[in-house]
Amino acid sequence: MGDLGIDTTITGGQGRYAATMSRHWEIWGPQGGYVASFALRAAGAHCGLPRPASIVGHFLGVASFDEPIDIACTTLRSAKTAQSVHVSITQQDRPIFDALVWGTVTGLQGLEHQYATMPHFPSWSELPTIQERLESVGEKWEPWFPFWENFEQRPPEWRTDWNERAPGSQPPEWSQWLRYAPTSSFDDPWLDACRLLIIVDVGSWPSVQAHHNVADIIAPSIDLACEFHRIDPKAEWLFALGTSPSSDGGLIATHQSVFADDGRLLASGVSQLLCRPTRGQRG
């Protein structure tokens, strides 16, 4: 188990930063949202504004855990209330991730509404964890990747025939109650936004796999966009909803939403996945 605050630490200043990725966040290599979190934290340090608004990025290569990464930030636009930052992550001069990040000031006055509705599922407090569900039938939870050990998970729905289900037997959707461990939330808005960003990215493939149930294809994200609607460290438990409205020509569209346990939409985003063959690996 890792700790998000420690495992996304950056050093440096004046637009040049460095970091080392932790294997605790491995899933087909460093998880995409985890990689993007370094760009988000660097953009926050560079612009100095108190609140992240959005990030849009392209995944350009798979990073190694064995070498440090370099992060370069450049201001593209700076105004009284907002700043746009270009972030480039490289490793040994090899491109890994490029992003555009908006930061804003706080206390802005404007229109307010919430139209998004969280699906009607039991609260996390009414549900057992994955470990408790499996232990009740004499089984032990063994996650496919170290990444999943960073959360306490309480599935709102449970299937005992998950691995044997027929392809197409359920829609391309994934939902989960998640709480980060050992530190569930963070006072730093840029760091707290990272926990939303990671969930927005990770909700993509599980929604696809729910519908297809394949072992010979993986589909890493080639891009990721996330809007941070509300930053609230008090919202420790997060409800993740991932859907895949369309897939064709080796490209898979995915949409994700992250809600607080009181129903407020905290973040939403999209990512496009690119299908690749694999040798029996599952995620």
Q: What sequence of helices (H) and strands (E) makes up the elements?
A: HEEHEEEEHEEHHEEEEEE
Instruction: Give the overall average pLDDT.
Output: 92
Strand elements, count: 14
Helix fraction, binned, reads 10-25%
* Strand residues, percent: 35-45%
How would you sum up the major sheet? Answer: 12 strands, antiparallel
Number of H/I helices: 5
Low-confidence stretches: none
Rg calc: 19 Å
Blueprint of the fold:
Elements: H1 4-7, E1 11-13, E2 16-19, H2 32-47, E3 51-59, E4 69-78, E5 82-91, E6 94-104, H3 130-135, E7 151-154, E8 173-180, H4 189-202, H5 204-212, E9 217-218, E10 223-228, E11 238-248, E12 251-260, E13 265-274, E14 276-277
Antiparallel strand pairs: 1-2, 2-4, 3-6, 3-10, 4-5, 5-6, 7-8, 8-11, 9-14, 10-13, 11-12, 12-13
Helix pairs in contact: 2-4
